[in-house]
User: What shape does this take?
Amino acid sequence: MSENTTRPAAPVKKQDGQMGSWAPLYDLLMFLMTFGKEKKLRQETIQLARIKPGDNVLEIGCGTGSLTLAAKEQAGPSGEVAGIDIAPEMVAKARQKAARYSADISFQEGGIAGIPFPDNRFDIVMCSFMIYHMPDEIRMKGFWEIFRVLKPGGHLFILDAALSEKQQQHRTGQIHDIRELPPVLKENHFTRIEMEKTGFGFLGTEFWFIRGKKAAV
Ligand SMILES: C[S@@+](CC[C@H](N)C(=O)[O-])C[C@H]1O[C@@H](n2cnc3c(N)ncnc32)[C@H](O)[C@@H]1O
Assistant: This one.
């Protein structure tokens, strides 16, 4: 992805939710949590996100870049794929991984509340296991920012956990459920919102996804 299409990244402040200290162990953790099936999980996620060859894709909160890499495989040489994360340690890991696989992906430091790309840039923006790793006000700014960087006709894809009945019974204010997001996306002008349970889960947790479109003008 050519650098002159990106905005200079605003200095990213340390904030709640950034997981830099997890970077060295994150891939091992994913391997263990998915019982060695992370690649399958990522490929299924890419299908659910509806990435096509030639799409321009941004992953926000890309971590070590495993899903971003799978997105690049699907988008192919004509698709421009980028990943941002608020934690510099995660960005460094993702860059190393992209170099190892000779994948042309732009990874940079950046937060959801100030996405370092111009308006109307991406066909698809993905947020996988990250949308609740931040204070509520940052997430709200984030939906505005995602809408800004999506092309008209493009869509947002979010993958995250839903609460089991038992978890709902013992719920505290801190626990979130992705199924609560559709009204929030509507308030932020997303249309054609679809939500479904995925076929995967781990440690007794269900995962659901949401797609929401930025209407074509
Ligand atoms: C659980 S990891 C998910 C990583 C990756 N998306 C995946 O599917 O494995 C959450 C990531 O979100 C990042 N993050 C947290 N708050 C963020 C924000 N405001 N903007 C961008 N990234 C953020 C963290 O640093 C961390 O790398």
